[in-house]
Structure formats: C-alpha cells, structure tokens
Amino acid sequence: MRIRTEGIQDHEAVYQLNVEAFGHREEEAQLVERIRASEGFIPELSIVAEMDHQLAGHILLSKASVVDEDKEHEVIVLAPIAVKPDFQKQGVGAQLIQEGIRKTKELGYGAIFLIGHASYYPKFGFVPARTYGFELKQFEVPDEVFMVCEITEGFLKDWSGELRYPDSFFS
Q1: On the chain, which terminus has fewer CB atoms closer than 10 Å, C or N?
Q2: Alpha carbon 60 to chain centroid distance?
C-alpha cells in the first residue's frame, strides 16, 4: 500500500471512490469538492491510499473552529474518510487515519474533531469531545460519536467551546 498526498489528477477517481464507498450516494463526494473549493482546505491533508495501482481510499481533514465567547481556536475536522468496498477490512482506513494524524501534527495543529463510529476511532486516540467541555450544535449526535483527538499534548487544556463546521459542510 502506498499512502500519499492527493493530486489534482486524482480528483475524479476520489469522487468515484467516495460514491462507491458510501453506497452509491454522492453527498460525501460533493462534500469533498466543496471543501477543496473552500478556505478551510489544506492540500497536504487530502490523502489517498493506493493498492494494486488504483486508489483504494481517501481521507480529508480540513479547518474548522471552536468558539468560546469571544475566543476562536482553529482546529481540524476529519470528514470524510472512504475506502473502496473491494479494499475494506484490509487496514486502508487505519493507515489513512494514522497518516492524517501525523501530517496534522506536523503542520502544527493540536486537535482533530470528528463525528464517527464510537467503537472504531478510540483506537487512534479519539475520545468523546464533550468530556473536554466541547459542544456541537450544528448536528444532533450522541455524545459517544462526537470525538476529539488531542495530537499536541496539553492543547485542549484550559479551553472549551462549540465546534463549528464551516459552510462547506452544508450544501
């Protein structure tokens, strides 16, 4: 498996990969396109996995903010992550998440938030975000699926607030 930064030449294949991975719906593929066109897009955090000379998976991490009264903290959100059905259950998603965390930390960001499966993401260091005092009001989700991973030790200490996804997450 080869993990690398997505290139412009990958855009069409990434679109199709997301459509296939999400049961032939286009919402996630369209989300990727909206994020790419937004101010929150960080090219280094759009990552693909290749296997057998084809794209097997894609992860996108982008900017969001946590707002607490008059303070705003820039953070990263993970969404979406997609693995082609033929390549699922082979560690593709895990390697993409690990590379996404590594690159996010390398770029100087301290935390990654997500909405995801409560049984899958904890093995990568994600914990329920509300235990840190964070809120999510844009989406109604159970506590256990709204998660955060502190990738710079102490980054989440002494502040909290409402995670706000940027406009690109809403069509």
Answers
A1: C
A2: 5
Tokens of 123: 């093995």
The total number of residues written for the chain in this structure: 171
CA distance 74 to 154: 15
The terminus-to-terminus CA distance of the chain in angstroms comes to 33
Distance from CA of residue 156 to its chain's centroid? 18
The pLDDT of residue 34 is: 98
Distance set, CA 141 to CA 136, 158, 167 (Å): 8, 24, 19
| For the chain, percent of residues with pLDDT exceeding 70 | 100
Q: What is d(CA 158, CA 107) in angstroms, rounded to the nearest whole number? A: 22
Give the span between the Cα atoms of 148 and 4, in whole angstroms. Answer: 24
Hey, which bits of the chain come out as E strands? 2-5, 46-51, 54-68, 71-83, 111-115, 127-128, 134-136, 146-150, 161-164
- β-pairing, 146-150 vs 111-115, is antiparallel
pLDDT in tens, 80-100: 999 999 999 999 999 999 999
Structure tokens at 140: 């109604």
Taking residues 119-142, report their average pLDDT.
97
* pTM exceeds 0.90: yes
Q: Are 62 and 15 spatial neighbours (Cβ–Cβ below 8 Å)?
A: no
Query: Token pair of 43, please?
Result: 């090219």
